[in-house]
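Researcher: Please predict.
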Amino acid sequence: MNRFRLIAVCLLAIAGVAAAGFSAYRLAEAQGQFSEQARLSALEAEQIRRTVLLFSEWVVPSGKTFSDFVNSRGVDPDTTFRIVQSTLPVYNLRMIRAGNRFAIGRSVLGEFRAIRYQIDPDRELWVSTRGPDFQAEIKDIPSVTEELSLGGEVRDNLFNAVTETGESPELALQLADIFGWDVDFNTDTRIGDTFRLVLEKKRYLNGQAPRYGRVLAAEYVNAGQTYQAVLFKDPNGHPAYYAPDGKSLKKAFLRSPLVFGGRISSHFSYSRFHPILKIRRPHLGIDYAAPTGTPVQTIGDGTVESAGYTNGGGGNAVRIRHTNGYETLYMHLSRILVRAGQRVAQGQRIGLVGRTGLATGPHLDFRILQNGSYRNFERLRLPPALPVAKRDLAEFERTRDTWLARLPDPTTFLAHASARTSGSRP
């Protein structure tokens, strides 16, 4: 019996030692794991401190330079100087514009790390730290371009008709620009006019407002007259709009207001010596020397604003209003062949050369204004009017058929417009 007790006591002692050893092992293992977790947590915290950026965003105020703006946001002058120097190869920060978005990125500990400035709707300037230096680059703002078809009916004006479709008035400006050579949307718009569009709409993944891209095809029905446009390329490869028959929508002005041409006897000048008044004063037009009775033509379609004798030395004169903000003035006429309010077509005779008013000899004083400002007709870049090049005609016809087929069915949006009208009635 004593032997068995001794064996039992020995076994218990061995078990106790083993248990103590196992506990010590588990404790050491746990301490090691804790130390490793602490090390990894410290590394993760350092990684977060170095990589995680918290951006504060503002809109650039007017009248502020870049330096003034960032200094007021807690960036010291030395850092600001180094930022400006680093960006010079890619962008000049002196060109920041009021109203654009601007953000400063800091670490979780509040340390300055980056700058983000929106150059335009599609690009951002990023300046970030690289050790003691800064690195600048321009990045594209991520976006998705969708194809959109819509149509509407004019019940009072084009702007309201577009906004009633849920779109921005900016789209009305694009539509007016496309058809502005055929329709004067200030005076020609009629209740019941309709429009249809196929266009691109760009949606930005950063949450900024969507932006319209290219209008691929458009139609405007004005007082029963249908105008259609298809986006294609001109003979030089530049984007341009054409009617379905391949003719350019932009009507070029004729290069001369004289039917048979004429010699330029005086050019556009802000300081010309007047041969009769003997003083220097602006001559904001071009004089064409020609015999009395030489036919004078309008350089573009339009409406006669005034026709008659004028004060100020112009003699018999005709003023014509064209679309897209242009006006033309024809002075010193011996005879006027049109009347105020009359619609005239490009190339139509409107008068005859003379020497009425302050004139030393028979000539035409021709002037052109754009949005109320006199322009030098000799240097004015007039819109192209060439049709689709013959070599591109087959490609144009495929493009035309594709996009015009995607214009929305007018019965659909007219039904919606009718429903909205009925719903708005008391």
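Model: The two ends are 112 Å apart (CA to CA).
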